Amino acid sequence: MKFSVLTLFPNQVSGFLHESIIGRAMEKGVIELQTINIRDFAGNRYGKVDDTLFGGGTGMLMQCEPVYQAFSSLYDATKESKPHCVFMSPKGSVLDQAKAKDLSKYEHVVILCGHYEGIDQRVLDEIVDEDLSIGDYVLTGGEVAACVVIDCVSRMIDGVLPNSEAYEEESHMNGYLEAPQYTKPNVWHDQAVPEVMLSGNHAKIKEWKRIHGLYDTWKRRPDLLQKMELSAEDWQSLLAIDAEKHEMNKETSIDEN
Ligand SMILES: C[S@@+](CC[C@H](N)C(=O)[O-])C[C@H]1O[C@@H](n2cnc3c(N)ncnc32)[C@H](O)[C@@H]1O
């Protein structure tokens, strides 16, 4: 899969993405990252790409033409269709795992990063297919947001992680959160790994993970659980885990006193 990022700060994007798992995926050629400096399309010798706002207001707005030229440089309009273009914006729909999965189906995604006050609406109307936000807050630029999108989309591309199980059982993939996880040693600070994890019984381990994932979702993100239909048996199991945890907390506080 190919990502082309249109930005005024290409190093912010490539610096982040060339490290670790995504960096290795690029070395293997599974992911291709192209950064395009919008300033290279300024059309003036000062590299000026922004101007003051019509109607007043603080700050500068990125102008249409450099953004349009940078985007147009990515494909040959006489031979190819326009690549899917995503504008990073706090006004966009908020990125989630389902959206990341949708984006992973494109061969080529262009990500446009705004800076300063943003970008003149007219060029956005012409080239952008969808606006995407990474949360209800405002960043100084779209570069960090573009890295977030590329990172989470890339994880779902074959060859980036060792196998699809590596992401299919993770939080949000099935609508709920992942169960707690453990590694060696078996006991740490008097806390033992849940016995079932050492049992070698795969069916039991799978069920333990499912029900404890649902428990964490109930406690941390009840909004996610509302979108799921749990059986009466599931609810019984969740209530039993809850009662057990309360009991353990009581014992701990008695021991501490
Ligand atoms: C300072 S912001 C502009 C905010 C804009 N004036 C507004 O109020 O909607 C500059 C750029 O950062 C990026 N940005 C800021 N917050 C973002 C968010 N939550 N998600 C994605 N991109 C964001 C966008 O590309 C935006 O054009």
Explain how this protein is built.
The chain is of the alpha/beta class and 257 residues long. It has two domains: 2-154, Alpha/beta knot (3-Layer(aba) Sandwich); 173-256, tRNA(m1g37)methyltransferase, domain 2 (Trp Operon Repressor, Chain A). Helices cover 40% and strands 17% of the residues. The protein is built from ten helices and nine strands. The chain has helices spanning 10-17, 20-28, 64-72, 97-103, 121-127, 143-154, 165-168, 202-220, 222-225, 232-256; strands at 2-7, 32-37, 50-52, 60-62, 84-94, 108-113, 130-133, 187-188, 191-192. The strands form three sheets. Strands 2-1-6-5-7 form a five-stranded parallel sheet, with helices on both faces. The chain has a two-stranded antiparallel ribbon with strand order 3-4. Strands 8-9 form a two-stranded antiparallel sheet. A hairpin with a 7-residue loop joins strand 3 (50-52) and strand 4 (60-62). Helix 8 (202-220) crosses helix 10 (232-256). The model has no long low-confidence stretch (mean pLDDT 96). The protein binds S-adenosylmethionine. The site of S-adenosylmethionine has 19 residues, from strand 5.
Kindly list the characteristics that best describe this protein:
10 helices, elongated, 2 domains, five-stranded parallel beta sheet, alpha/beta, Trp Operon Repressor, Chain A, binds S-adenosylmethionine, Alpha/beta knot, 257 residues, 9 strands, two-stranded antiparallel ribbon
Structural topology:
Elements: E1 2-7, H1 10-17, H2 20-28, E2 32-37, E3 50-52, E4 60-62, H3 64-72, E5 84-94, H4 97-103, E6 108-113, H5 121-127, E7 130-133, H6 143-154, H7 165-168, E8 187-188, E9 191-192, H8 202-220, H9 222-225, H10 232-256
Parallel strand pairs: 1-2, 1-6, 5-6, 5-7
Antiparallel strand pairs: 3-4, 8-9
Helix pairs in contact: 1-6, 3-5, 8-10
